[in-house]
Amino acid sequence: MIIVHHLENSRSQRILWLLEELRLDYEIKHYKRDPRTMRAPRALKKVHPLGKAPILQEDAVILAESGAIFEHFVQTEKRFGPPRDLHDARRYRLYMHYAEGSLMPPLFAMLVVNKLGLLGRPARKPIMKMLHEHFVYLDEDMADRPYFAGDQLTAADMMMSFPLEAARSRAGLDERYPNLLAWLRRCHERPAYQRALERGGDYAYAG
Amino acid sequence: MIIVHHLENSRSQRILWLLEELRLDYEIKHYKRDPRTMRAPRALKKVHPLGKAPILQEDAVILAESGAIFEHFVQTEKRFGPPRDLHDARRYRLYMHYAEGSLMPPLFAMLVVNKLGLLGRPARKPIMKMLHEHFVYLDEDMADRPYFAGDQLTAADMMMSFPLEAARSRAGLDERYPNLLAWLRRCHERPAYQRALERGGDYAYAG
Questions:
Q1: Which DSSP state fits B203?
Q2: Residue A55 at interface with chain B, using a CB cutoff of 8 Å
Q3: Which intervals hold domain GST C-terminal (chains A, B) (predicted)?
Q4: Which of B136, B155, B178, B198 could pair with B80 in a Cys bridge, judged by C-beta atoms 3.0 to 4.6 Å apart?
């Protein structure tokens, strides 16, 4: 049995989406953020010492880290992996790592800086500039295809969903980047995405 | 011909290490950080629109994003990839993504917060706490093996080198975490690591 340890408004929403796309059976254990720190609650540490969502439990095996969980299922289910076309496969590999490697750090820094309130103000402009550069690059890169690695949805899109949804909700991803908004709509219209949203509960970033 | 577009004191140092371990021929194009912003110089944008190191050029093909570059060489050279042992392969996958997905965001946030000087002070403590939790977890996880995915060096170690070197140099990775320091020494003693250091030039984090 697959159990997803799912934290509200977090990266684990995309694991639910993946499992719905794969039509696998799974259970969700729901966790709420600590209302003071907004971090994952201590209960998650009992499942895995890192104590962060997503954590996936499959019988006795515990898997952490979104990218690693995606690769596990791409390998076992043989779906949503790298396309055969060499260019598309390269894009797949790029975006599988870019989501967390390049796009999340400025988004996370923005979260930290926003918590500082007025004190954080001097840092906000350079981070927004950095994010804008990412969005311009991504928007151009998505001008000629519906999904990040070509014509079909892959794990790379699902990996990219969380940072781009977070960016849409609170870090300047707006109408200036129409290809990215069209991609987001395309993802959100998928029945599997909607089923994942229903099962996951609170998710502030799908709007 | 392989060309590494290499930025001083950056993630691209680990690409040089990989290429030295693989004993591949390559050229380095050196880039200096902008002395004011400490970010990559504009010249890197001419190579790839993301404009960040590492960028790898192999004939007409341009690859960006450390994780994607590592996977490319693991696939083409069939070395330093996931071990055969199932547990070790799982660790390999975890750490390939954890390096940037979980460990770099608080390190990057610390960099941003440090630039704020006194203003950033309230944010420093929670970030250091977060990093300490990572180090405790990693140090325990490394108690019984020399490398992150078992007995042999893999791409996962090379991916982990940059965040842990940065942490050693400026984010509290010290004698409280002896297994991590032993791992760092083990990496730094490798002849390929030392050759990469000689060829790469300035690298503040290898000490």
A1: -
A2: no
A3: 85-207
A4: B155
Instruction: From chain B, pick out residues whose CB is under 8 angstroms from the CB of A100.
Output: 97, 100-101
Q: Which residues of A touch B116 (CB under 8 A)?
A: 116, 119-120, 122-123
Size of the A and B interface in Cβ pairs below 8 Å: 128
Q: In what order do the strands lie in the sheet with A55-58?
A: A27-31, A2-7, A55-58, A61-64
The model's pLDDT over B140-157, given as tens digits with 9 standing for 90+, comes to 999 999 999 999 999 999
The answer on pLDDT for A207 being more than 70 is no
Question: DSSP state, A41?
Answer: P
Disruptive mutation site among A7, A65, A69, A88 for chain B (greatest number of B CBs within 10 Å): A65
pLDDT per residue as tens digits for the range A48-88 = 988 889 999 999 999 999 999 999 999 999 999 999 999 99
Q: Chain B contact for A135, CB < 8 A?
A: no
Read off the pLDDT band of A187 (50, 70, 90): very high
Restricting to A residues 1-40, those with a Cβ less than 8 Å away from any Cβ of B are 37
B33 and B11 in contact (C-beta within 8 Å)?
no
Range with lowest mean pLDDT among A26-30, A74-78, B116-120? B116-120
> Which residues, including other chains, have CB under 8 Å from residue A158's CB and lie 6 or more apart?
A14, A17, A18, A21, A70, A80
